[in-house]
Write a structure and sequence with these properties.
alpha+beta, 6-stranded mixed beta sheet, 3 helices
Length: 175
């Protein structure tokens, strides 16, 4: 399993950690591309001595800023079984929201324990999603919300019982 997260902000030059329209810094979110592995480390694998290794879908600040500020036209709340489980039983599953942009590209916004650096809500290129994901709900946002709004709605913190992926996906769809 690969971990395709944006570099840790401490690895970036100071000029690359400027605010995005005054709301977020690079360290506030992660652009990722992963696979359906361990539900707690969905987009990561552990390298030597437990350290994560990274490959990036988007590593330039300009690409990251463009994506973060992109209008969302369609949002689909989705669910999949947890890793190593073939079925979904109520909350024993993983949730996220797949968003479609004006250029037709799709991205999964979801959260989990250990997914991000300073936010546990991350953005994953939807081409990394397995075929186990199922659409639960669809909402047309017509470009009125940006990816930034979905990341913000998903929340920075994670709690298995009180602020998990299901709560995050619900908040994204209710905005």
């Amino acid at each position: 399993m690969r971990c395709d997260l944006l570099p840790d902000p401490t690895e970036l030059a100071p000029e690359e950690t400027k605010n995005f329209e005054g709301t977020k810094t690079v360290g506030d979110f992660v652009i990722a591309g992963g696979s359906d592995g361990n539900p707690l480390f969905d987009n990561c694998h552990q390298g030597a001595e437990g350290a994560s290794s990274y490959n990036y879908d988007l590593s330039r600040k300009s690409d990251l800023t463009k994506l973060y500020n992109s209008p969302v036209y369609l949002a689909e709340r989705m669910k999949r079984p947890l890793a190593n489980m073939g079925v979904m039983i109520g909350p024993i599953s993983h949730s996220g929201v797949r968003v479609t942009l004006s250029d037709g590209s799709t991205w999964l916004v979801h959260k989990g324990n250990g997914f991000g650096v300073s936010s546990q809500t991350v953005v994953v290129d939807a081409r990394h999603m397995s075929n186990k994901w199922q659409i639960v709900e669809t909402k047309n946002f017509g470009g009125t919300k940006k990816i930034a709004d979905f990341v913000r709605a998903g929340g920075t913190d994670y709690s298995l019982l009180f602020n998990n992926c299901h709560f995050g996906a619900d908040q994204m769809m209710k905005q």
